[in-house]
Specification:
- This protein is α/β, with parallel strands linked by helices.
- It has three domains: 135 residues, Orthogonal Bundle (N-utilizing Substance Protein B Homolog, Chain A), CATH 1.10.940; 56 residues, Sun protein, domain 3 (Alpha-Beta Plaits), CATH 3.30.70.1170; 201 residues, Vaccinia Virus protein VP39 (Rossmann fold), CATH 3.40.50.
- 43% of the residues lie in helices and 15% in strands.
- The strands form two sheets. Strands 5, 6, 7, 8, 9, 10, 11, 12 and 13 form a nine-stranded mixed beta sheet that branches. A four-stranded antiparallel beta sheet has the order 2-3-1-4, covered by helices on one side.
- A hairpin with a 6-residue loop joins strand 2 and strand 3.
- The protein is globular, with a radius of gyration of 23 Å.
- It starts with a helix and ends with a strand.
């Protein structure tokens, strides 16, 4: 059986080479469930705390490893994570990583690995004080992203950054058209599962402890879905009515598509995503709920000469591709994958998608723009620029969305709004004069 620590090393190395951790874990070779869970825990943990762990290990090495020994460097980060952030007893945290160094075929380094981790254990307090004098390192964020968050949210930055380092809760969306939230809470209790009603999102329940979805009563029948509370607001923002034609652009994995169809009956929904493989996830979600939408693989920025692009819609949801900086507690690899240089292209793509889909909205119709970003360039500034370009657009208030007013929209902030970081803005198309 593969050593889960070696599996975690390989997973983190793949992330450093540009692959998403979700994809890496989905294809990981570890088959034993306990080993798989430990490998995932270590992989997520090292990605979440990479910069801080890296700074600590750097203080303990006389010189960096050569590039061919990157695996040893990451293995030390795994060991440091076990010592600092896991419940693994210190002696086991050290000995398991020393053994893993031999499993990597680098027994020559076992004494070095043992010495570095033993010293970290002995000198932990002093070493942590040294690295934490730099705030970006303390919150394990790249300099550019730390500065961007502090600049955008100076009064809330400490709470946001602390929340992004936390473990996210498992949040459920109850299909309120089929069952009341209190009734579903009772069904959970009957299964021995405890949850709390979310304070501001009527469909959301927060589980006290995460469980496999097959333990959720009614999951296979679509009574409940796993979805962050902030993401559950999209359907309500659309102001849906029976008989409307709705386009869910950038729809995968389909949680919002299912919510739209469960929100109001009698809709004609088209779900679009550029990734045909991920579109299958949309189909699976709809099948679970016993609902139907027209699925299309295509680029939301290029509706011309397509079947879905030849139609017009009463409602359009644009869950735009973005930096995903608001969901780092669920996807900690983002801080390793994202670069400041990515932002201009993302902002341009968002702008292109908005303008392309605006032409498909009927006069009087509503487009809801959503990102899971914390950065104004993708959010308030993007909407402001769109309104300046389109004289037939006006912003619509979203009084039911909790959060902080941000330009013409609302920003949900991790650590403040009991959600991941989402931005919402609603735009209405004015009738032709």
């Amino acid at each position: 059986m593969a050593d889960p620590r070696i599996a975690a090393v390989n997973n983190v190395l793949a992330v450093l080479d540009g692959r998403s951790l979700d994809h890496v874990l989905a294809t990981a070779p570890v088959t034993d469930e306990r080993d798989r869970a430990l490998a995932a825990e270590l992989s997520f943990g090292v990605c979440r705390w990479y910069r801080r762990l890296d700074a600590l290990i750097a203080l303990l090495l006389q010189k960096p490893f050569k590039s061919r020994d990157r695996d040893l460097h990451v293995l030390l980060l795994v060991g440091a994570y076990q010592l600092l952030y896991s419940r693994i007893p210190p002696h086991a945290a050290v000995s398991s990583v020393v053994e893993a160094s031999r499993g990597l075929g680098k027994a020559w380094a076992s004494k070095l690995v043992n010495g570095v981790l033993r010293r970290l254990q002995r000198e932990r307090e002093a070493l942590e004080q040294r690295v934490d004098t730099d705030a970006a390192t303390r919150f394990a964020q790249p300099d550019w992203l730390y500065q961007a968050i502090v600049s955008a949210w100076p009064a809330q930055a400490e709470r946001i950054l602390a929340s992004l380092q936390g473990r996210p809760p498992m949040v459920l969306r109850v299909a309120l058209s089929q069952i009341g939230r209190a009734d579903y809470l009772a069904r959970l209790a009957a299964q021995g599962l405890s949850a709390q009603a979310h304070p501001t999102v009527p469909s959301a329940l927060v589980l006290d402890s995460a469980v496999p979805v097959d333990r959720l009563p009614g999951f296979e029948q679509g009574l409940v879905s796993v979805q962050d509370a902030g993401a559950q607001l999209a359907a309500a923002c659309l102001d849906l009515r029976q008989g409307q034609r709705v386009l869910d652009a950038c729809a995968a994995p389909g949680g919002k598509t299912l919510d739209i169809l469960q929100h109001v009956g009698g809709l004609q929904v088209t779900a679009l995503d550029v990734d045909a493989e991920r579109l299958q996830r949309v189909a699976q979600n709809l099948q679970r709920g016993g609902l139907h939408a027209d699925l299309h693989a295509g680029d939301a920025a290029q509706p011309q000469h397509t079947d879905w692009g030849a139609s017009h819609y009463d409602r359009i949801l644009v869950d735009a591709p973005c930096s995903a900086t608001g969901v780092m507690r669920r996807h900690p690899d983002i801080r390793l994958l994202r670069r400041a240089s990515d932002l201009p292209d993302l902002v341009q793509r968002q702008s292109t998608i908005l303008s392309a889909l605006w032409r498909l909205l009927v006069p009087g119709g509503r487009l809801v723009y959503v990102t899971c970003s914390l950065l104004p360039a993708e959010n308030a500034q993007q909407v402001e620029a769109f309104l300046a370009r389109h004289q037939d657009a006006r912003a619509v208030e979203l009084p039911t969305v909790p959060g902080t007013r941000c330009g013409e929209g609302v920003q949900l902030l991790p650590g403040i709004d009991d959600t991941d970081g989402f931005y919402y803005a609603a735009l209405q198309k004015l009738p032709a004069s």
